[in-house]
Amino acid sequence: MSASPAVHSLPNAVVKATSSIASRSAVASPPAKSRTDGPSGRGPSSARKAAQIRSLDGEIRALARSIAQAAVEVLAGTRPAQQLSRTLDPGCLGALQHRAALTRAHAANHGGQSRVHRSPMVRSVRVCAVNDGVYEASLVVSEELRSRAVAMRLEESNGAWKVTALEIG
Predict the structure, then answer these.
(1) Residue 88 has what DSSP assignment?
(2) Alpha-carbon distances of 128 from 26, 27, 75, 103, 151, rounded to whole Å
(3) What's the CA gap between 112 and 105, in Å, rounded?
(4) Three-class SS state of 162
(5) What pLDDT score does 80 carry?
(6) Which one of 37, 47, 127, 151 counts the least CB within 10 Å of its CB?
(7) pLDDT for residue 27
(8) pTM above 0.90, yes or no
């Protein structure tokens, strides 16, 4: 046996076939170009698109803030749940109404109005885009005696934003 490496040359037909495939794939998929075309009319510029995303994030942040504030007020009994019927899907609205009823029943059994849900204030809001038309938000709501975490999922439907999931800690 010899100590030479076991390298074999490929037949010419295989070399031609592989080089032909490589050249066709290079033609079929040209290198990606950066899209910085705003003035050309082919699409929004990256700066304009970033501004639109920031604007939408701000809109979602404000909407999430108002919904969380209202939901905690519903739990406190200072706001009717029906006021949220346009922004909550039926499942979320039903769950919020049920929890508010349980909270009122608990307060009635323990001597009147509960002090737990007094003057809630949203302290922080974080939003994250999941997909086009889908955002998730997490909020911190402070009350006199405690702070609560609120999480929600907002989905765009027919030009309006609806909360499809709501969790209040």
Answers:
(1) B
(2) 37, 38, 26, 31, 11
(3) 9
(4) strand
(5) 93
(6) 47
(7) 43
(8) no
